[in-house]
Design a protein that fits this description.
Elements (H helix, E strand, L loop, with lengths): L2 E5 L5 H13 L2 E4 L11 H11 L18 E7 L8 H8 L6 E8 L5 H9 L4 E9 L7 H39 L1
Parallel strand pairs: 1-2, 1-3, 3-4, 4-5
The protein binds flavin mononucleotide (FMN).
């Protein structure tokens, strides 16, 4: 089974979760990097707000892997003003992701999961196997707490990957049954 982790980040929290997931599930990793950089402070906060409110599609650099080549895709975002990062507006415009097995994750400063709700709506033509949200793992004071959160994310991802593998096996079994019938 081919697994991809697709994510974006500014300060590294979502990246830390993405890496933990990728290590545990033996996945390829693609980071979505925007062309015009944004910082998480100052005037950029207003620019980001505008992008989110007006659902803008900032330019992104080409990334390594085509999600459509994968059986299972983990998609991760930082929460920005209760929604997902606008780079995903660009991504969803360029690449139509449907009929895939998908799992969604986000990091935020609160436990509100609105970005994941919006992701789920946007990706409704795929099978969403699960969602995971955590609060800023790398901003934790204690390394042990950071590690605990990353382990939790990795374990969640492993459960999702096991479930996806089982589904694919069953689908293959059904497909073969159909072939041999005809
Ligand atoms: C512009 C901006 C808006 C944000 N809005 C929210 C929000 O609505 N809800 C929330 O829980 N966290 C919010 N945050 C906090 C980030 O989601 C959080 O720090 C996240 O872990 C950052 O991910 P990153 O380190 O991968 O960039 C916001 C941060 C920024 C920079």
């Amino acid at each position: 089974m081919k697994v991809l982790v697709l994510y974006t980040t500014i300060d590294g929290n979502t990246e830390a979760v993405a890496q933990a997931i990728a290590e545990k599930t033996d996945a390829d990793v693609s980071k979505i990097v925007r062309v015009s950089k944004r910082h998480a402070y100052g005037i950029d906060l207003f620019r980001i707000w505008l992008e989110v409110v007006f659902k803008r599609r900032p330019g992104i650099f080409p990334f390594k892997h085509d999600p459509r080549d994968y059986d299972l895709i983990f998609i991760g975002t930082p929460v920005w003003f209760d929604t997902y990062n606008p780079v995903f507006n660009t991504l969803f415009e360029v690449i139509k992701i449907y009929d895939r097995k998908i799992a969604l994750f986000s990091t935020g400063s609160t436990d509100k999961q609105k970005a994941l709700d919006k992701f789920s709506k946007k990706l409704k033509d795929s099978v969403i196997l699960g969602r995971y949200h955590c609060i800023e793992p790398i901003f934790e004071d204690e390394d042990s707490e950071t590690q605990r959160i990353l382990n939790e994310a990795a374990d969640w991802a492993k459960g999702i990957a096991d479930e996806a593998a089982k589904m694919i096996e069953e689908e293959e079994f059904e497909r073969r049954k159909t072939i041999y019938k005809t």
